[in-house]
Design a protein that fits this description.
Blueprint: H1 4-7, H2 21-34, H3 37-45
Length: 53
């Protein structure tokens, strides 16, 4: 489904507002993107970068 008006752009993870897990998830994603782990996993399963550039 591709409807930016309804779904927004890109991908996301839902957490409750104010949940400290949101910060931890953001840090973890930034870390795996920085060290190349994300690219390795992404390339194994997808032909495009699902995170975006």
């Amino acid at each position: 489904m591709d409807d930016p008006e309804c779904l927004g752009e890109g991908t996301g993870i839902a957490v409750r507002k104010g949940d400290p897990l949101a910060g931890e998830l953001s840090e973890a994603i930034a870390a795996i993107r920085a060290d190349g782990t994300y690219a390795t996993i992404n390339d194994k399963y997808f032909d495009v970068d699902i995170y975006g550039k």
